[in-house]
Specification:
The chain is globular. It has a single domain, classed as Chloramphenicol Acetyltransferase (2-Layer Sandwich). Helix 2 packs parallel to helix 9, helix 3 (55-69) packs across helix 8 and helix 8 runs parallel beside helix 9 (241-251). It has a six-stranded mixed β-sheet with strand order 1-8-7-6-4-5, with helices on both faces. Strands 2-3 form a two-stranded antiparallel sheet. It is 42% helix and 22% strand. The protein has helices at residues 13-25, 40-46, 55-69, 120-132, 139-148, 152-165, 167-174, 224-239, 241-251; strands at residues 30-38, 75-78, 84-87, 92-101, 104-113, 177-181, 198-202, 210-218. The protein contains nine helices and eight strands. It is an alpha/beta fold and 252 residues long.
């Protein structure tokens, strides 16, 4: 009886762009820290609301505010023509969104410019659009699809320029920080790769208000003390400014 044999599967566009990202992440010295934030004040403020802002919008806006106060969080490392740091004038959030693309699960980056300047209702609407609008209606998704259709040498050159040579391009295409939720999957990330400077992973708060947050960062740009200050300030902003903002909006 003939034994079944395997077969070759061509790389789909989603597997190609993840491969490109992984290739350019290989030489980034990522360090990860983890902190349990006490956000009971924010949990209590959200509880009576019929349409409370989601945690993605809250964390994105809060970290944008933190980044506005800590310029190290808006910096990125460039290698060409010589190693240097570039500081972007405002935050750019890259929301990691899982979408269906041509019948396949795919990961996209949805960009939000200046989240610290967008009120929560508007930011919530932007996040919802990234998750629900047709893929072809989101500019950053279209750009990723279009770039990945190029032959590998051409698209790798485009990736190289955007990640290694131009700080403005890198920030406007890949964000100054990314936000990724693992709360619906019941998992904890234990290994990180990223071509960017900062990646935020968050879980759901437990009944006591403890919110587990992981922060992966490029050690060439800043150190663990900066990451620790950022997470401490993130906790303060979530319990302070975010609570006041949703309290005002619920009272309107």
């Amino acid at each position: 009886m003939k034994k079944p044999s395997g077969h070759t599967i061509p790389l789909s566009l989603p597997r190609r762009w993840i491969g490109d990202l992984a290739a350019f992440s290989r030489n980034v010295p990522i360090v990860a820290v983890e902190k349990s934030l006490n956000v009971k004040a924010l949990v209590d403020a959200r509880r009576p609301m019929t349409e409370a802002p989601g945690w993605c919008a809250l964390i994105t806006r809060a970290f944008g505010l933190v980044s506005a106060r800590q310029p190290e969080l808006r910096r990125t490392y460039l290698t060409f023509p010589s190693p240097r740091l570039y500081e972007h004038p405002q935050s750019v959030a890259a929301i990691v969104v899982g979408r269906d693309f041509s019948g396949e699960a795919a990961v996209f980056l949805g960009l939000i410019q200046g989240p610290e300047n967008i009120p929560l209702p508007g930011l919530q609407a932007r996040v919802r659009q990234l998750r629900d609008a047709p893929v072809t209606e989101i500019g950053s998704y279209r750009r990723l699809i279009r770039t990945t259709k190029f032959p590998r040498p051409m698209r790798r050159l485009l990736w190289w320029y955007g990640l290694c040579a131009s700080g403005k391009q890198k920030s406007n295409i890949f964000g100054t920080f990314s936000v990724n939720s693992v709360r619906t999957m019941g998992i904890r990330v234990i290994q990180f790769i990223s071509p960017g400077t900062t990646a935020i992973y968050y879980d759901s708060p437990d009944p006591s208000g403890a919110l587990n947050v992981q922060m992966a960062f490029d050690h060439r740009v800043f150190d663990g003390t900066t990451a620790g200050r950022a997470l401490a300030e993130l906790e303060n902003v979530l319990n302070g400014e975010m609570v006041r903002e949703i309290t005002r909006s619920s009272g309107d």
